[in-house]
Amino acid sequence: MVLARYVLKEHVSPFLFSFSVIMFLLVVDLILQKMDLILGKGIPPLVVAELFFLNTAWMVALAIPMAVLVGTLMAFGRMSADNEISALRSLGVGVQQVVWPVLLAGALIAGALVLFNDRILPEFNYRGRMLMGDIQRKRPAVALEDKMGVIIQDFDNYKILIGDIEPETSILKDVLIYKYEPGGFPVTIMAEEGEIRFQDQNDEARLLLRNGEFHRVDLKDPEVFVKAAFDRKILRLGEAGLRLSRTISHYRTDREMTIGMMLERVRQFEEEIETRMLERAENGADLMRKILLGAVPVSRPYGAALDLLGRIKTDATIIGHKKRQADRYLVEIHKKLSIPVACIVFVLVGAPLGIRVRGRSPAVGAGISIGFFLMWWLFLIGGETLADRGFVPPWIAMWCPNIFVLAGGGWIAVGTVFEWRPAWRRR
After folding, report:
1. What stretches of 301-392 show up as alpha helix (H) in DSSP?
2. Which residue of 34, 189, 222, 364 has the fewest C-beta atoms within 10 A of its own C-beta?
3. Binning pLDDT at 50, 70 and 90, where does residue 263 land?
């Protein structure tokens, strides 16, 4: 137990360090991707923080397996470089006695990650998608200082052109407006000056115009042109986009469902496929029975057969579509399980690698870890694409990355075990 506690203690610092670095890099990448969209929307800081917090769930699901690999390799590499491995070897301690505490910890982490991927990750993905959609639908408040001489199209059914703006009072000068009437002719409104006001109560923008006139075609008689002057006129432009409207949807993608939800969807698709295949078989048998009994006219068998072939082709297309939909859910189910199991695989690969590398520099362990993780990640992404398109079964696509990485590091593990045998077995 003393040895187990010591080995686990040596893994804590590199695991936490690598996890922090990976999370930092993923968050920075997310900021670079989303910041341009967010900055132009006038989103409150708390909402921005909520968006990034909701996106940390998928980052955690990826960062933990990689941190396990980096931590294992760096910890065993440090122990090997400081001759601690040699000291244990001289005492007749087998490699399995050193690795099993880390392997058990990796299994516990894998179990916790399964629960995380099944319960927490789908909810975070769902809320993050909904919030991002609300942000994309939000319109920024009109920045008038940047709109002089530019047509403003931020409001439905209105196009506004501003000649000049008084910097001190923000009064608009030489305002030209095109208002589009549903089912009618557009109205042209011109005013010497105007002012945009925002109503906080209902998030509405209003344009107060002074000393102007409007031109329009009469709706009842298109040959009549109407021109009228006004001293003061208020246009209700509609929603100003100052508020963020939060929406609710019951639709969830496969990445927003628990394993139970997806298994239910798969069961429904399989029942629909089975029902359609039975109907197709019954229709074929019914046609053959009618032909043999002479119930179909002599001139009709070929036409009836063609009709049946057409229905079979349609059924085959529908069945194939439903099977691909079911496979997508199965891919996500296996992925929720295979990614956590990678924690165990990375311990089995990282431990012998660390013992063999004997590198004191963290860069050595990080470089090797990145190589193995990239290989695992490429197999995972490629397998998911192939499974979604129906080229390979979902379980093969999602479990092959773990198998290939384990096979790639297996010869190292075998070599390490046979090279480092207890003293009593070498006599």
Report:
1. 301-357, 362-388
2. 222
3. very high
